[in-house]
């Protein structure tokens, strides 16, 4: 019982340390530019980060099972492009219906990943490395290399993320909804716990009757679903569907997970951690121009911070292991 | 004798493991053989469609476009073989190229540039190796971070500028030919490196240790192999070879931009996996990867001749990558069934 509380405290501590880190960061930036902590600006940062958080939550599920989904950026591009093309061709179709189509397209692509991983027994990294190219290639094929620009989109389509509800944008509400569902799913549902079980110990999970196939197919489908939603939101928010949409985004989602304390080996990580990890990245990206640092530093700083976050996690894990060992000896 | 009626016995004859037929089946279910056959097929098809394909001058010159990636693929075999992965290699190229460009601006000569290139690459590889083996962090996470870190350095300093002043003699490495022949220096260098790496993998203790580590890290450790030391050397080698590739690439295009070699890590891993190296570790050969390099390189060249859009090539590469892993899975299944059959026959 006591060990259990210690473990829980350790897990809780990671989120708390992240909150402290974010607080420090905000304080530092605000010292340089008091404007930064205004409600408007905070809302802008959250709005900028919601898409990253939604996709990272799908990535979280995949990483929890010990896999990785490198195709999310391409799924975003493909589903965003197909939704925009429909909107361009038939502006009369209601935006909600187009949103549904975009999400379904993303889900279908996720299912392709899931089928190859679960039934073809191809490792996730290879599968999604391959589909990353394939989906990106097909994005170019369906768009014929053209862009869909703002004046070719209907107003209702572009309003999908921008619309206001109770003072917050629709996009933020979508993020809140996805987060709540994910917290519920990962903590309170049987399938959600099975995801953790597979990542913790796949053999043990099989012996207690967890269907690895089913779970793996499901998580890639969910990741595709969220990427599809993100794709529609992305193109509508920036009012442009280009072929290079979200290139390299997959690595940002993995970075959000890693900063949020998710173990890349699978089995441990929380939704709250990933949300904080995503926010952390969002704040840094938005803070650079505020403190007069050239945006060209963004890549370097992001890499540096991911490495630092992992280093802290690893050292904390080591100390925890030592503590548990010491307890066992005494 | 009921076994005579058994379907396992084929036409009533015992299966002879050393028979010509059996040996052929083993040979033709080998991934390397399939790749080689595919390569021959590719040459036959392309040379029938277009007269420009099977041209000595064209074939030699086309090799320029994929030799740098080929050099990067060699140490990647070792890394993947032992169950690791390195997705920072393209960024190492960016870092090395940046370091050489910076040095060239301040007037360092060709020999100095080569020295800088090789050492910066090696150091970057050691940096990865340190975090992965000394601190026990997962390879994919560390190299994901250094992917941004290494390229980020180049981008922070260069912004949207480029280094374009290199000494004239520096151009030889990426543009030169051997003697008066039409054979590119890059091609010869790659083949020499491939022979060396093939020798290490297939004929030395180090190579055997790589297979052992890839199959089971803990078993290898119990067998007295310094697993972490071997992995550290792998990442260092990876850095060194990226240094070589960066020298070739920078010399060939004669400029350094922050986006140099973007996405090459993924393309290189594709080559290695297509060459039959198992991403789970423990399986793969240098000849297999070498064939895959030429197969894919000349596929792109041939499709380019036919005016097929680059997007189709991207799709083809992705499909090939997945098939490359799916197919051996099925071949393994067939092999396992045959083995079972042989065992049952012997028991009778």
Written account of the structure:
The complex is a heterodimer of chains A (330) and B (348). Chain A is an all-alpha fold and 330 residues long. Chain A has a single domain (12-329), classed as ABC transporter involved in vitamin B12 uptake, BtuC (Orthogonal Bundle), CATH 1.10.3470. Helix content of chain A is 76%, strand content 1%. Chain A is built from 13 helices and 2 strands. In chain A, strands 1-2 form a two-stranded antiparallel ribbon. Chain A is globular. The model of chain A has no long low-confidence stretch (mean pLDDT 86). Chain B has helices spanning 20-28, 31-49, 56-62, 64-81, 89-105, 110-134, 139-158, 172-175, 185-203, 205-215, 217-222, 227-253, 264-274, 286-305, 310-347. In chain B, helix 4 (64-81) runs parallel beside helix 9 and helix 6 runs antiparallel to helix 7 (139-158). The relative contact order of chain B is 0.17. Residues 1-12 of chain B have low confidence and may be disordered. The chains are: A mainly alpha (330), B mainly alpha (348).
Question: Could you give a short description of this structure?
Answer:
With 330 residues, chain A is mainly alpha-helical. Helices cover 76% and strands 1% of the residues of chain A.
| Total of DSSP H or I helical runs spanning 4+ residues of chain B | 15
For the largest interface, the chains and their residue counts are: A-B, 42 and 44 residues
Structural class of chain A: mainly alpha
Portion in beta strands of chain A? under 5%
Spatial strand sequence of the major β-sheet of chain A: 1-2
**Integer-rounded radius of gyration of chain A:** 20 Å
Taken in chain order, the helices and strands of chain B follow as HHHHHHHHHHHHHHH
Mean pLDDT of chain B: 88
Gap between N and C termini of chain A, in Å? 17 Å
- The overall strand count of chain A is 2
**Number of domain units of chain A:** 1
- From the 3D coordinates, which CATH architecture of chain A would you assign? Orthogonal Bundle
């Amino acid at each position: 019982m006591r060990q259990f509380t210690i473990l829980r405290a350790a897990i809780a501590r990671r989120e708390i340390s992240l909150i402290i880190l974010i607080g420090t960061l905000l304080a530092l930036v605000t010292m340089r530019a008091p404007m930064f902590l205004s409600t408007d600006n905070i809302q802008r940062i959250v709005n900028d980060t919601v898409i990253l958080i939604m996709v990272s939550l799908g990535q979280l599920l995949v990483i929890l099972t010990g896999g990785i989904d490198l195709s999310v950026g391409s799924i975003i591009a493909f589903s965003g492009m197909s939704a925009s093309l429909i909107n361009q061709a038939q502006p009369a179709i209601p935006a909600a219906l187009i949103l549904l189509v975009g999400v379904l397209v993303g889900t279908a692509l996720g299912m392709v990943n899931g089928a190859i991983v679960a039934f073809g027994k191809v490792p996730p990294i290879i599968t999604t490395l391959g589909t990353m190219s394939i989906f990106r290639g097909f994005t170019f094929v369906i768009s014929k290399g053209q862009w869909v620009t703002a004046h070719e989109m209907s107003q209702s389509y572009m309003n999908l993320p921008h619309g206001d509800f109770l003072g917050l944008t629709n996009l933020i509400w979508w993020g809140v909804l996805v987060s709540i569902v994910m917290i519920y799913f990962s903590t309170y549902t049987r399938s959600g716990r099975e995801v953790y079980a597979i990542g913790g110990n796949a053999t043990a999970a099989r012996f207690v009757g967890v269907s690895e196939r089913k779970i793996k197919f499901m998580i890639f489908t969910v990741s595709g679903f969220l990427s599809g939603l993100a794709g529609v939101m992305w193109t509508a928010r920036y009012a442009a569907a280009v072929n290079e949409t979200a290139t390299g985004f997959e690595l940002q989602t993995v970075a959000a997970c890693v900063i949020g304390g998710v173990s890349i080996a699978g089995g441990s990580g929380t939704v709250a951690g990933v949300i904080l990890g995503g926010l952390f990245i969002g704040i840094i990206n938005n803070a650079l121009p505020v403190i007069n640092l050239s945006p060209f530093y963004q890549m370097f700083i992001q890499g540096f911070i991911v490495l630092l976050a992992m280093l802290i996690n690893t050292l904390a894990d080591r100390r925890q292991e030592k503590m548990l060992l010491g307890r066992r000896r005494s | 004798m009921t076994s005579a009626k058994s379907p396992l016995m084929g036409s009533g004859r015992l299966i002879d493991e050393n028979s010509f037929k059996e040996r052929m089946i083993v040979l033709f279910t080998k991934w390397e053989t399939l790749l080689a056959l595919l390569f021959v097929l590719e040459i036959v098809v392309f040379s029938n469609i277009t007269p420009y394909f099977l041209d000595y001058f064209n074939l030699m010159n086309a090799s320029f476009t994929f030799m740098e990636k080929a050099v990067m693929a060699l140490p990647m075999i070792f890394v993947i073989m032992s169950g690791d992965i390195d997705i920072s290699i393209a960024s190492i190229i960016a870092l090395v190229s940046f370091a050489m460009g910076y040095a060239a601006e301040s007037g360092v000569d060709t020999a100095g540039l080569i020295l800088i290139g090789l050492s910066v690459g090696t150091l970057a590889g050691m940096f990865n190796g340190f975090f992965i083996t000394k601190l026990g962090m997962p390879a994919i996470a560390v190299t994901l971070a250094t992917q941004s870190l290494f390229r980020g350095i180049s981008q922070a300093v260069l912004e949207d500028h480029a280094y374009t002043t290199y000494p004239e003699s520096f151009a030889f490495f990426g543009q030169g030919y051997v003697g008066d022949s039409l054979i590119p220096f890059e091609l010869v260098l790659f083949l020499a490196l491939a022979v060396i790496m093939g020798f290490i993998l297939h004929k030395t203790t180090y190579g055997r240790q790589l297979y052992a580590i890839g199959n089971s890290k803990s078993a290898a450790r119990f067998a007295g192999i310094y697993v972490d030391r071997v992995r550290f050397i792998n990442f260092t080698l990876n850095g060194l070879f990226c240094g070589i590739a960066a020298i070739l690439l920078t010399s060939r295009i004669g400029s350094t931009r922050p986006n140099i070699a973007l996405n090459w890590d993924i393309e290189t891993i594709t080559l290695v996996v297509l060459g039959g190296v198992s991403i789970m570790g423990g399986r793969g050969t240098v000849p297999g990867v070498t064939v895959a390099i030429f197969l894919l390189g000349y596929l792109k060249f041939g499709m380019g001749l036919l005016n097929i859009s680059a997007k189709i090539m991207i799709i083809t590469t992705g499909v090939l990558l997945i098939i490359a892993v799916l197919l051996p899975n099925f071949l393994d299944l067939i092999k396992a069934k045959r083995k079972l059959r042989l065992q049952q026959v012997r028991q009778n």
